[in-house]
Amino acid sequence: MTLAALALAGAALSTAGPRDARAAAPVRVRVAAVAAATNPCSLVSADQASRIVGARVLSSREAPLGPTCIYAFRRKASDVTIVIESLTLKRAIGTLRRPSKFLLRGRLSYCGTLGHQVLFTSLPRGKVLSVSAPCATARRFAQQALIHLRVG
Questions:
Q1: Residue ranges per structural domain of the chain
Q2: Which of 88, 4, 12, 72 is nearest to 38 (CA)?
Q3: How many angstroms separate the CA atoms of 96 and 111, rounded?
Q4: Residue 62's closest CA among 43, 47, 89?
Q5: What is the C-alpha to C-alpha distance for residues 84 and 53, in angstroms, rounded to an integer?
Q6: Is the pLDDT of residue 34 over 60?
Q7: CA distance 101 to 64
Q8: Which numeric CATH code is attached to 44-149?
Q9: I want to staple 152 with a disulfide (CB 3.0 to 4.6 A). Which of 24, 75, 106, 109 is the partner?
Q10: Percent with pLDDT over 70 in the chain
Q11: N- to C-terminal Cα separation, the chain
Q12: What is d(CA 3, CA 32) in angstroms, rounded to the nearest whole number?
């Protein structure tokens, strides 16, 4: 289903009566998840990011590759990036050095090094959530993103 078709389905839901809305509720959830996936900056708010990192967010901007959200912080040398990628978890972790395996909200996750620390979490439909940050920070970003995506 294309993004435009999902948006039309969402618009139809808003004009449907109560009985129709209950029957079609799963479509609404999918619309929200797909919309969030197209704008990774909506997965973790600036306020949430500030609390996680312990520093004020200077900017959060969407970069076209991915698309990717890049969070820049006051008095922090490195940025945090978050993206939903179309690849399998097995392929994503294939080049990780010293990966640690764990569950995040019931989803299989790994954190390791690819020149910098990165976390990968499995998502439905052959997607992977990727967060580039020190593992403890990346875990907290991923937890917020999974809550927003209603996964796990």
A1: 3-37, 44-149
A2: 4
A3: 8
A4: 43
A5: 21
A6: no
A7: 29
A8: 3.40.1000
A9: 106
A10: 74
A11: 23
A12: 11
CA–CA dist 92, 85 (Å, integer): 9
User: Which segments within the chain are labelled E, that is strand?
Assistant: 57-63, 68-73, 80-85, 97-104, 107-113, 117-123, 127-132
One-letter amino acid identity for 49? Answer: A
Read off the tokens for 2: 């294309």
Report the alpha-carbon distance of residue 137 to residue 128 in Å, rounded.
17
* d(C-alpha 138, C-alpha 81), whole Å: 9
In which band, very low, low, confident or very high, does the pLDDT at 38 lie, cut at 50, 70 and 90? Answer: low
Q: Which two three-digit tokens encode residue 31?
A: 């619309």
In this structure, what token pair is assigned to residue 7?
A: 């948006």
